[in-house]
Amino acid sequence: MATLEIRDLHVSVADGSDGTKEILRGVDLTVKAGETHAIMGPNGSGKSTLAYAVAGHPKYEVTSGAVTLDGEDVLAMSVDERARAGLFLAMQYPVEVPGVSVSNFLRTAVTAVRGEAPKLREFAKEMKKAMDDLSIDPAFAQRSLNEGFSGGEKKRHEILQMEMLQPRIAVLDETDSGLDVDALKVVSEGVNRFSGADTGVLLITHYTRILRYVKPDFVHVFSGGRVVAQGGPELADVLENEGYEKYAKAGVS
Ligand code: ADP
Ligand code: MG
Ligand code: MG
């Protein structure tokens, strides 16, 4: 049973002049297999920073705290090691790679995570099935990675990666922007197919919209770089009705 534990995580970024600015100020969160967690919060509260820090993005410096997966130190792992350990972090490969097709990229990623290259024909079958499930046009497989992808295509590709890599814990930063209702449904269905007894999901979102399709077991409200409130799925409804105002005040330091 996979367990991702985030303990008193503090993260800083360069502030653009000479110093650093602390963004995350002691985040505590545990995601276990079989659970879907939503992190919600106002813009600028540090939600994406949490995802980047767990992904190992070099711009985000962990100044203290711990992230472990089944007790293993995630922060000591390279980005590839994190993937092999069973963590899926959607923003790991957000870059445009002209000349590398979606299909080649996926095969490379699957090879890295499984430790051996899948047979071409089986891989093609697997990819076709996953793409069908996500209503992705077959021609998409030959597109250059992320080049000219629309918001919806990026999200579909993200979920396609997740389905192919079969991680144990997935961290998805749903910026939600650029997702039309159809794309939102496809992404949500992908998340719902993925979530099960052996897998855990941490879904980061600003809007409650996606939570009409994905039902979280736990909702955490983020403000000022930490979790300021927690509850069950009913908390998402409260946020939908009341917004983040009262939490925004709580988060100001
Ligand atoms: P959210 O995803 O909740 O909207 P972010 O994590 O993107 O919030 O940003 C939190 C704060 O950290 C914001 O004030 C943002 O400007 C700042 N920040 C995030 N990433 C960087 C970065 N790479 N460089 C400088 N400031 C950053
Ligand atoms: Mg602290
Ligand atoms: Mg964000």
Which key features would you list for this structure?
Rossmann fold, binds magnesium ion, 12 strands, alpha/beta, binds adenosine-5'-diphosphate, four-stranded antiparallel beta sheet, 253 residues
**CATH architecture call:** 3-Layer(aba) Sandwich
Q: Enumerate the spans where pLDDT stays under 50 for 5 or more consecutive residues.
A: none
Binned, the helix content reads 25-40%
The shape, in one word, is globular
What's the count of strands? 12
* Total number of distinct structural domains: 1
Strand order of the largest sheet: 6-9-10-3-11-12
List the ligand species.
adenosine-5'-diphosphate, magnesium ion
- Look at the structure and give the CATH class: Alpha Beta
Q: Write the H/E string, N to C.
A: EEEHEEHEEHHEHEHEEEHH
Provide the gyration radius in Å.
18 Å
Organism: Actinomadura rubrisoli
Keywords: ATP-binding, Nucleotide-binding
Pfam family, one: ABC_tran
Family: Belongs to the ABC transporter superfamily. Ycf16 family.
Task: Write a structural description.
Residues 4-249 form the ABC transporter domain. Keywords: ATP-binding, Nucleotide-binding. Belongs to the ABC transporter superfamily. Ycf16 family. One of its GO terms (molecular function) is ATP binding. The protein has 253 residues and is an alpha/beta fold. It has one domain (3-99, 168-251): Rossmann fold (3-Layer(aba) Sandwich), CATH 3.40.50.300. The chain is 34% helix and 30% strand. It is built from eight helices and twelve strands. The chain has helices at residues 47-55, 79-84, 102-114, 120-133, 151-165, 181-194, 234-242, 245-251, and strands spanning 3-14, 20-32, 36-40, 61-69, 72-73, 87-89, 97-101, 144-145, 169-174, 200-205, 218-223, 226-231. The protein has a six-stranded mixed β-sheet with strand order 6-9-10-3-11-12, with helices on both faces. A hairpin with a 5-residue loop joins strand 1 and strand 2 (20-32). The longest helix is centred in the middle third of the chain and has 15 residues, at 151-165. It is globular. It starts with a strand and ends with a helix. One magnesium ion binds at residues 47-48, 175.
